[in-house]
Amino acid sequence: MKHIELLLLSSAVLLCSAAPAVELVTCSEDSGAAAAHLAMHHINERHDHGYKFRLSETQDIKVVTVDGDCDVELQLKLQETKCHVVNPKPFEDCEIREEHERAVMANCTVMITVKSGDAKVTKYECDTRQAKTNVEMVRICPDCPSLIPLNSPEAMRSVDETVKIFNQNTSNQHYYILQEAGRVLSGYMMRAGMVYYPEVVLVETHCPMGSRILPEACKPLCPDRAHHAVCSSSYSAKEGLGSVECEFYPPSNVTALSPGEREPVCRPPYHVGPPLPPGHEGPPPHAGHGPPPPIGHGPPPHAGHGPPPHAGHGPPPHAGHGPPHVGGRRPPPGQGRPPFTPPPSHHCYSLNLLQSDPALHPICPWPHPELHPRPKHT
Ligand SMILES: *[C@@H]1O[C@H](CO)[C@@H](O)[C@H](O)[C@H]1NC(C)=O
Ligand SMILES: *[C@@H]1O[C@H](CO)[C@@H](O)[C@H](O)[C@H]1NC(C)=O
Ligand SMILES: *[C@@H]1O[C@H](CO)[C@@H](O)[C@H](O)[C@H]1NC(C)=O
């Protein structure tokens, strides 16, 4: 009897210790669940484009012990969720995409170091791909739509149309601009021909709804102070744009500005890659310093990758760099004008990702594999 009670007690303790965040990653092999949990938080925190991911399974765990400390290598299989990264919902609560919606998975290798009882993720690299290839899908579901490259003219057209219609909704306080195209499905319909189903991520700008400024010329509010919207629609050449359905997310910072305080400016709007050194949030890291950007840094050299590079896509970069402000003032030439601003969203700026699927947002490797050392600022 005593023994049973003890067993019950210890399983209760186990249940409690399975609660997230308090679980410790140790050097023992049964620390796998805790290690995977730590890895998932780390990966989702750094994933600043596309959709959140959830753990599907831990495929392998290797622990190499050195003097009581250890290195843990995890092989994880992840599944893409339906929550875009602008959605504040914790990734654990997000739904996984089903096969017919063209599921996306990632195969990740994650390194964790445990030193004096303290566990830290030191590195990860993922291979992100569609769970089933188009050929496999045709066999399973010939009528299911497929994901098309985000920079294809059809995808960009359907996305642009969605943004345009969105900005005609006068219940919005401000204009919104495109943050990124999340995904675009396409399929054939008897009556309409090819139909495109874009999922579009929009960010609120400074420009009041109804102002004469072209929405594309508007600058996004800082990410923590902007509303975001994720909208789905359908588009066909024959029938035009279908209804636009949106989910809105409130800003995380709702602190009112004190009288006379101006809305803060965030530059660059959506930074991808390693954090910039303090005081250098303005121009991109290579602006005016050191050698020209290496290949693979900045816009990819050839089509077929990344978000649509054309004007009007993505939040406009710095003042004076985007389209001229209608009725506004241009900054004087040569002032606050970096020579080059990389497109704000999504490539991983890494050579090994040039083969990645242009129809989806991959998980970028971390730390960012630097192609040349960052110049030192004194
Ligand atoms: C994931 O990658 C590892 C290492 O590259 C490989 O051994 C494993 O088979 C891969 N798993 C899947 C599901 O692709
Ligand atoms: C217009 O925007 C509001 C939120 O500002 C939203 O609730 C509403 O559904 C939108 N209407 C249309 C037709 O998109
Ligand atoms: C919220 O935004 C205001 C205005 O930019 C800023 O002063 C404040 O520090 C922000 N609060 C947080 C918690 O980031």
Describe the model:
The protein is of the alpha+beta class. The protein has 2 domains: 4-9 and 143-350, Nuclear Transport Factor 2, Chain: A (Roll); 12-134, Nuclear Transport Factor 2, Chain: A, CATH 3.10.450. Helix content is 14%, strand content 28%. The protein contains 4 helices and 11 strands; from the N terminus they run H-H-E-E-E-E-H-E-H-E-E-E-E-E-E. Strands 5, 6, 7, 8, 9, 10 and 11 form a 7-stranded antiparallel β-sheet that branches. A hairpin with a 2-residue loop joins strand 1 (51-66) and strand 2. The N and C termini lie far apart (70 Å). Bound molecules: 2-acetamido-2-deoxy-beta-D-glucopyranose (3 copies). The site of one 2-acetamido-2-deoxy-beta-D-glucopyranose (NAG) has 6 residues, from strand 11. One 2-acetamido-2-deoxy-beta-D-glucopyranose binds at residues 169, 171-172, 244, 246, 248.
| Total domain units | 2
Counting DSSP H or I runs of 4 or more residues, the number of helices is 4
Q: What is the count of β-strands?
A: 11
CATH class of the largest domain: Alpha Beta
Helix content: 10-25%
Low-confidence stretches: 1-20, 269-345
String of helices and strands: HHEEEEHEHEEEEEE
Strand content: 25-35%
Mean pLDDT: 77
Biggest pleated-sheet summary:
7 strands, antiparallel
| Backbone shape | flat
Indicate the topology.
Elements: H1 2-17, H2 32-46, E1 51-66, E2 69-84, E3 104-115, E4 118-130, H3 134-140, E5 146-147, H4 153-166, E6 174-189, E7 193-208, E8 228-232, E9 235-236, E10 240-241, E11 245-249
Antiparallel strand pairs: 1-2, 2-3, 3-4, 5-6, 6-7, 7-8, 7-9, 8-11, 9-10
